[in-house]
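To whoever picks this up:

The parser on our side crashed when reading a file containing two proteins. I've narrowed it down to the boundary between the first structure block and the second sequence. Both blocks are reproduced below exactly, byte for byte. First block:
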Amino acid sequence: MQASPRLRRSDDETLRSLQDVVQDQARVIQSLQASLTALESKVQSQQSAINSLQVRENHESNAVAFSVRFQSDDESNGVLLGQHQTLTFNDVITNIGNGYDSATGIFTAPVAGVYIFFLRVMSTNSHGSIDVVIDKQGAPLDLIFAEGQTDPYDQGSGQVTTHLAVGEKVWARQQSGEAVRGRWYTSFTGLLLNPKTVSHSFSSLSSLPCHSTT
């Protein structure tokens, strides 16, 4: 028994309707997939921006630097120093990280890492030569000499790189001589080069020469 033409038309219409529904759903799925891809790309872009901000924030929070000198100066006498006295630079130009204490002249590392220190000294015309050392935890790292006997107002400078753990201290100390010039003639600077948690070994000076000032 054959189906009537009306019934066949009804089945064909139903089939076409179902096919249209399937095609519509396929287009919806494609649109959703495109939206999902765009959303994933946007999320990745935002995550990259967040990571970049975090790296920048971490870098800025680890920034440590100081630059100091003496506020006053006397052309003849300079700044008088006692035996093995710490140079208490009281004119703080920069102190990022607040590691330098102008009351004591001591820098205390707020962040562990590799630091570089620069020291420049000038002798006076009436107190002869001057030796100043950069000390780390009481051990000398470098010696700076300014010859003030035959060459008044001589200037010496030095730099040293070392690893510091959090809380370790560095300062400039008189080794021999009586005075240095103040103001911009004698200055001390330190900078964190690379934050690290693993300590590196840097040998200190086992013995220091002492230049005669007589």
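<<boundary where parser fails>>
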Amino acid sequence: MNASEFRRRGKEMVDYMANYMEGIEGRQVYPDVEPGYLRPLIPAAAPQEPDTFEDIINDVEKIIMPGAASPACTELETVMMDWLGKMLELPKAFLNEKAGEGGGVIQMVATLGTTTCCSFDNLLEVGPIWLITDYRGSNKVNEALLQRINSAKKIHLVPCHLRDKFVLRFAICSRTVESAHVQRAWEHIKELAADVLRAERE
């Protein structure tokens, strides 16, 4: 890739990312894919010849983006670590493949190593990064509510167990989230919660 093509492709990538951010509300929050979906869709070994830029972008859109929330990133990393293991001619026991018991993912060690420094940040300077709200009801109601919320695929909640209580966690972790998004999500939760409680009474 020469400088001219690099400049052109770089602009195309910026456009791709900007279009993604602008259209993110139209994308599905929770993926339809199941864990393990990615490996059969990409080569078992690193390609010998480079793909075209268009083919790479098409693969990203068709193969990676449907599982972008999870589990695409981790699965892609494990496959590529297998590529590396095969290039180094490591024993199969070091690979993620079915026959192996090893494997790994790509770790950004410097980032992970400095995460604890965030505890000293001035949150007023950092800005509104996250919000966590726990919703507590009976275990049965919360489990039913979680199933309805995640099945609707408009937002995605994760549960946790606190002293034998099944608690739903509403976490907002993106700097691009606006108050209107939070309000819309909260109204969605309240609507589905009302449906669950109505079904309980019936």
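After patching the parser it read the second block fine. Strands lie at 131-135, 158-162, 165-172. The longest helix spans residues 179-201.
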